[in-house]
Description:
The complex is a heterodimer of chains A (364) and B (224). With 364 residues, chain A is an alpha+beta fold. Helices cover 24% and strands 36% of the residues of chain A. Chain A has 9 helices and 21 strands. Chain B has a single domain (3-35, 43-214), classed as MetI-like (MetI-like fold, Orthogonal Bundle). Chain B is built from 11 helices and no strands. Chain B has helices at residues 3-33, 39-51, 54-65, 70-79, 87-112, 115-123, 128-139, 141-156, 160-166, 176-185, 189-214. Chain B starts with a helix and ends in a 10-residue tail after the last helix. At the A-B interface, strand 7 of A face helix 6 and helix 7 of B.
Amino acid sequence: MAATLSLDCRKTFPRGLTVSVQLELPLDPPLVLILFGPSGSGKTTVLRCLAGLEQPEEGTIRFGQDLWVDAARRQVVPPQARHLGYMPQDYALFPTHTVTGNIEYGLSDLPQAERRRRVSEALALLQLQGLEQSKPRQLSGGQQQRVALARAIARQPQLLLLDEPLSALDAPTRGALCSELRSLLTRLKIPTVVVTHDWTEALTLGDRIAVMSEGKILQVGVPQEVFSRPANESVAQIVGVETVVQGQVSDSAHGLATVQVNGIAMKALAVDEIGPSVYVCIRAEDVVLEQAGSGMTSARNHLAGRVDAIDPRGVMVQVKIDCGFPLTAVITRGAVEELRLAPGAPVIAAIKAGSVHLVSRSVV
Amino acid sequence: MNWIAIGVTVKLAALTSLLLLGIGVGIAYWLSFSRWRWKFLVESIVALPLVLPPTVLGFYILVAIGPHSPVGRFYADLVGHALPFTFEGLLFASILYSLPFAVQPFAAAFDQVDRRLIEASWTLGASKLQTFFKLILPLSITGVITGVVLSFAHTLGEFGVVLMVGGNIEGETRTVSIDIYDEVQVLNYAGAAKTAFFLLVVSYLVLLCVYAMNRKVWAVWPQR
C-alpha cells in the first residue's frame, strides 16, 4: 500500500460547529494540499488536528505507517513526536529569540555543527542573511513570514502545515511571496497542507484542493478542475470562479497584458512579477452574453463561440460556451430567452479586461 | 541596631524567597495551565494568607507542626527536635505566609504568555519542560523576579506569624520586627527608631526595584 495521509475524524465545538472530515492524500510523490473555504468552515481545525494541537473526539488520523490519532482507543501522538513543520496564521515567532534563535529552536537534539549547517541553509533558502541577530519585532511582515517558514522547514519535517501563510501580508507583498512560496515548496519536496481562503493562492500553491464548508469537505481534486467543474452549486459559490484555463502571456504594455489561450488572444489587466505561464480565471458573473453580430460594448474581449450546455441554477442559468476554450457564464432566465440560446447556437461572450484574472502557474 | 536580628531576618527572607521560587513556580504553572474546573479552590487557598490575620495563620501553623500533630511528630522523630520555636519552623511558616506574594505574580506572568507561542514550541519538538525553560520563563521573567522580590520584602516585615511560631529566641527566631517591638516595650525609642528606619529604607528600596522593573525604567538584565 502506498503511503498516504488519511484523515477520518470528527470534532464538535461547544458553539455548534461540527467538523467531520474524510480525506486521503498520497505522500509519494509529495503533494501540496489546499484546504479551501470561507472562515468558520473548519479548515484551521483540520490543520490543528493534524498538528496534534486539537484532539478529534472520534476517528483516526494516520500518517503513512504511523497512527497519530485513534480516538476509540484514546491513543494520541503528541505534536512533539509528529515531526512537523507548523506555521500558524500569525507566525508565532518567539519574541525573546533572535532570527537565528527562532530557527534553531527546534534543532536542539542535533549536534552543534549540524545545527549551524541547518540554520545557515534555512537562512540562505529564505534570503534572510544579514538578519540573523534581529528580533522578530524589528522585522517587516514579509521577513517575519520567511523566518516562520525557515523555522518550520529547518527541522526537515515529514509534513508541513501552513495556516493562511500569506494573509497577514499587504496585497502587493502577497502576490510576490505567493510565487516564491510555490517555488520553495516545489524544491522542498515535503508533503504540505495549506489553509487558505484566497483562490489565487489555492491555484498557485495547490496540487490538490479540498473545498470545505460548515465543517465538511465538499469536493477534492486538482485545483483547476475543481474550479472549472465544481461538483455542485455550493462549491461553485465558495470557489467563486468558474473558468480557469491555462494561458501564456505574450505581451504586456500600458497596464494591459495580452494572454494567449488555445490560440485565442485576450486582454487582461497586467500583473507585476508574474511568469509567462498563467492561469486565466474568469468569474461566470463577469461574462456578458450577446447575440452573434450585435454591436460593440465597452468590454475589451469579444469571444465568438457556441453554446455547449444550459443548466438552470435557481433563478439563474449557467451557460457553458465553447469559444476555443470552455467558458462558463451565469445569466438570468429572461436573458436566455431573449438571446434565444440553445445548445449549438452561436453567441458572443464579452468580458472586460479587468475581469480576466491572471494567476501565476508554475511549470513543472 | 540589633545586627543579630537583622542577620536572622535577612537569612529567613532570602531562604523563604528562594524556596518559594521553586514551590511557587510549580503551583503557579499548574494554576495557569490546568483546565481543571475546580482549580479556583486551590487559588483561594493560596490567597488565604492575604486576608487572614497573621496570628490566626500562625496559630494554625503552630498547632499543625506542634508535637501533638502527626506532621510535628514525624518531623521530631526524623530530626530529633520539634519544629515550633526553631528557625526551620519559622521558615516553614514564612513560606506559607508569603505564598500568595510569589504565586500570584508568577501565575499572572504565565497567564500573559501567548498560548500560540507555546503550541508552536510543541510542534518544534520541545517537551513541556523544555518549553517552560526555553520559552515561558524568558517571557515571564519580570513577573518571576517580581514574585521573588515581593516575597522577600514581605518576609522581612512579618510579625504576627513569627511571634506565634518562632517565639523570640536571640539569634534563632528573633527577627527585626520583633526586636523593634521589644525595644518599644522597654521604652528604648531611640533603638526602635533606628531599626524601624532601617526596615523602612530596605522595604522601600525593594519595592522601588519591583516597580521600576515593571515599568521597564531600566534594563535589569542585558538585552539578548
